[in-house]
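tool_log.txt
---
The assistant was asked to compare two proteins side by side. It first ran the structure predictor on the initial sequence, then on the second. Raw inputs and outputs are pasted verbatim so the downstream comparison step can read them without reformatting.
(1)
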Amino acid sequence: MWNLSFGFFGVQIAYALQSANISRIFATLGADPHQLSFFWILPPLMGMLVQPLIGKWSDRTWCRMGRRKPYLLVGAIVAVLVMVLLPNAGSLNLSTAYVFLGLNAAMWFGLFSLIFLDTSINVAMQPFKMMVGDMVNEEQKAKAYSIQSFLCNAGSLFGYLFPIFFTWIGLANEAPEGQVPPSVITSFYVGAAILIICVLYTFMKVKEMPPAEYAEFHGITASADDSSKKEGLLSLLAKAPRTFWTVGLVQFFCWAAFLYMWTYSNGTLAFNCWGGVTDTASADYQAAGNWVGVVFAVQAVGSILWATILPKFRNLKTAYVVSLLIGAVGFASLLFIHDKFIACGAYFLIGAAWAAMLALPFTLLTNALEGNPYMGSYLGLFNCTICLPQIVAAATGGLVLKLVGGSQATMLGLAGILLVLGALAVRLIDTKQK
């Protein structure tokens, strides 16, 4: 189970670098705070389009390299290439005079790089979840996803701390206006190297089951696994178990909340903990950007520790509710915190919600799909419950920010309310297969 998920460590480093630094990068390139959520729309939209297809295609892919592993490898290679390009968006001598739809050329380059980065990360990430569903029995799935959650958060810890670490060893954390600091650029380079090493480790160490062994392991009859039956994604969606929809509702509230966290943490900390700083070119704003990595790392530590507690709950739904409510307290407290060290405590609490979001939804869903020959397709479709709320939150983020008077801290308070709604929605989840 460890080898099965080890590559997830490297993938999550890339995802953590993206989550902690995208708003910082685009603010540095000249984006207005009300534009920041815009940059988060297209990546999940691409994921929403790609993930169901990856699931569907990989369900039918039985080759010498495996069933899911070919997609894992391709996604990782593309992610590495884009991670080298994205942080250099401000250093490519792109004309800042060219503006289209309110974005200069550097921001457009960064935006399209972000689309490819998020898409490739999702392509590399999804096979890990599918392989657990393919190769781990029902009794061990909770443990397998807990291992995956641990590696995910351990990878996050490294990705979040890279910028402040490279600043500490002497790399510059400031750059000419419109350019990304060397500390951030180097973080992406190192993250890309670790990503490909970890993915290659899983690729080489894991051997997926051939079709006959897979069918026997899952108790699938020849008729049930008839490859001539080609169910369309819409048809599968119509036949999805009730667990798919009820867990998806919880996902909606949770992922919208975390989209707000990724988008507005930098601005919140800069304003609340650095004396009202809003100048994105200032040393204080970049210092706050480094501290975002620190608080996100603290969140990852909280998530790692909480992940060890989750298996002790007798009821998965109870664990889900408690985790989300703890995270909601963390978000709400950021409205009143003006010390960067105390802010770490708030993000530590938020880690409980993150741990539950990584492990419990897939445990609940794959248990409901046990023996289903379209496991990958359903997991791909289920990824839409991650992408859609991010799209909605990103599309409406600028408007909501105006409604709350431009206070980015209030956006994090709203994230807390969303987690409470998610906790209430957990009651609707039916853990029985339908």
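(2)
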Amino acid sequence: MLVSSSISAKGLRLFTYPADSATNTGIAVIVCPGGSYCWHDMEHEGREVAQWLQSNGINAFVLQYRVATISAYCIGYRVIGLGNKYPNMLTDVEDALKYVYQHADSMHIDTTRIGVMGFSAGGHLTMMSYTHNRTAYKPSFLCPVYPVVTMRDKQYTHHRSRRGALGVWGQFNKTMRDSLSLEQHIPADCPPVFLVNCVDDPIVKYHNSEMLDSALTAQHIPHRYIQYRTGGHGFGASDEKGTEECRQWKNECLQWILNLNQ
């Protein structure tokens, strides 16, 4: 029977989906839903993802990290107030990793098998959970799905995510844009990465994932990149959204995680 619970402590909002004791693989995944750093798709990119992982013996944790909120994006209140922006969301994923590490024994989780998976802006945060991590609690694998990657390339940047992450004025700061452009910050010790997107994505241009693939290749990071022709954006773990082609990503990703952690 699938069960879940929520954790809300010191600003951390985490929804837990522990694997059944009979099927527990010892693997854990922190899930970061997308939403342009302005909201969260807690259904297709949150709950459904967690239940899919949980049903396959993987302990899942859906992170409701801090975002600008839709109202902040629309009315720009952060011009006169701080609001939520970088590094708030990075702090949240760091805190989530710390929580999972510190509760690993009681949940029968192997601390060498803790990963992060995210979608769209959540895919950007997924990569930052290692590339920008300021703590000792780091993921051992990463799964960005149709991720936002660059914040410096005028042609391919997803501007709403950049504004959500950096704020009304920060989005114009070249140093900040460069600092959050993942293709510039892949370290030589980056853990294995599973990357997937669709060429017909109308929201985040597919070139973002190609940039990340190239950066990972340049650093000789073990990774698998799958580029589907169709599927668009925002399908998450849905059995209805996207296309039959792109919905194959779940099986491919699951096998990659299980094989990686054997």
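---
observation on (2): Strands lie at 5-9, 12-17, 28-32, 59-63, 114-119, 141-145, 193-198, 223-228. The mean pLDDT is 93.
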